Amino acid sequence: MDTFTRRFKVAQAAAAGHRALNPLEAQTLLYVVEHPDCGLGDVARYLDVAMTTMSSATDRLVRRGLVARRRPEGNRRAIALNATDAGLAEADAQKLAYAEACRAMLRALDREEQEALIRLTEKVATHDG
After folding, report:
1. In what helix (H) or strand (E) does residue 62 lie, and over which residues does it extend?
2. From its phi and psi, is residue 37 left (phi > 0), alpha (psi between -120 and 50) or beta?
3. CATH class for the region spanning 2-126
4. Which one of 10, 66, 68, 87 counts the least CB within 10 Å of its CB?
5. Per-residue pLDDT at 41
6. For residues 44 and 40, what is the distance between their CA atoms, to the nearest angstrom?
């Protein structure tokens, strides 16, 4: 599994090219795109990371111009996160890079093996035990 995971990460980074975000940044950006006006705690809970870790990842995304923070009118103490136009474009690029990495890994298998791997991966991903 370590070798598989490492090869997948390398393939994904190669597909992303110079834009590569670290995995936490990429997952944060994708969550923010899918959940406009979410809070830092929402993202931290979803990704199961500490608030300090989430804050650092968000700071890096803000510095890169991919995420913007704003204070909602109803709660001036809260912070709402939204993707910028650059962030939306980067999220699309991340999704394409992920899909290309998946295709690259699946090329080593014939059609029947691909279907079996996908089926087994879905089973592992949805198992609650």
Report:
1. helix 51-63
2. left
3. mainly alpha
4. 10
5. 94
6. 6
